[in-house]
């Protein structure tokens, strides 16, 4: 009598099927910001500036020192400043890291200016909650024969906050993270709060922001001022940023 043959066992599944497949990482939202109406040629930092920026980011966040700072301002006409141009300004950064300032033509445009300031984000926002804040950013005037550099294209600034020297400000190109913040806030004209961020920002605290309308007033080719206006329009600017070439 013939012995029945046993069917061969089914092949074992490949080893890769037994491994857990990690979930896909969340993708960044597509950046749909528009170019400003007045396009500028791309700003390219020099080798000297790149070296300074590298050293600047290694500086500790310093305690302000007292210094003289002239008080002053422009007359406020209701919620607007006479002769000013309305812009959108955003202060943002992780609470324990340096704060960033972005100036846009409007909330749906790519920033015209991004500055990294040496003041901690939490410290500056705390001072703004206590009252009026004046920030002065000064840079040295070049040789009289060289007037080609526009004021807002200057790469390095000395920073004063309410009359106290607080370090430096450095102009830089908008990074992918900067554009991601601007994209998340593209529908926000003014306000303050906390934004979602990845795990890498946990050690530096929450990613916070403050956004509002700024009135831009051009004094000369060596001076510009940005006033963040109070929404009620009754108490004048709550933040003034002076750019001066001396």
Automatic annotation (TrEMBL):
GO biological process entries: hydrotropism
Compositional bias of kind Low complexity: 34-45
Region (Disordered): 1-45
InterPro entries according to UniProt: MIZ1-like_pln
Biased composition annotated in UniProt, kind: Pro residues: 1-14
Name of this chain's protein: Protein MIZU-KUSSEI 1
Lineage: Eukaryota, Viridiplantae, Streptophyta, Embryophyta, Tracheophyta
């Amino acid at each position: 009598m013939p012995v029945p043959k046993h069917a061969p066992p089914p092949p074992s599944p490949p080893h890769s099927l037994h491994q857990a497949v990690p979930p896909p990482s969340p993708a960044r939202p597509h950046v749909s910001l528009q170019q400003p109406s007045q396009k500028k040629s791309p700003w390219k930092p020099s080798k000297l500036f790149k070296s300074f920026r590298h050293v600047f980011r290694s500086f500790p966040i310093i305690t302000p020192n007292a210094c003289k700072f002239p008080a002053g301002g422009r007359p406020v006409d209701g919620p607007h400043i006479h002769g000013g141009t309305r812009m959108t300004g955003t202060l943002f950064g992780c609470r324990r890291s340096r704060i960033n300032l972005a100036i846009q033509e409007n909330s749906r445009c790519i920033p015209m200016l991004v500055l990294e300031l040496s003041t901690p984000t939490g410290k500056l926002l705390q001072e703004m909650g206590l009252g009026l804040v004046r920030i002065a950013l000064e840079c040295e005037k070049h040789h009289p024969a060289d007037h080609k550099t526009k004021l807002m294209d200057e790469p390095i600034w000395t920073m004063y906050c309410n009359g106290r020297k607080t370090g430096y400000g450095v102009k830089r190109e908008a990074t992918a993270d900067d554009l991601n913040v601007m994209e998340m806030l593209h529908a926000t004209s003014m306000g303050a709060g906390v934004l979602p961020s990845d795990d890498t920002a946990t050690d530096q605290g929450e990613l916070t922001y403050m956004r509002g309308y700024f009135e831009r007033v051009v004094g000369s080719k060596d001076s510009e001022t940005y006033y963040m206006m109070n929404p009620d329009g009754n108490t004048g600017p709550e933040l003034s940023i002076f750019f001066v070439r001396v």
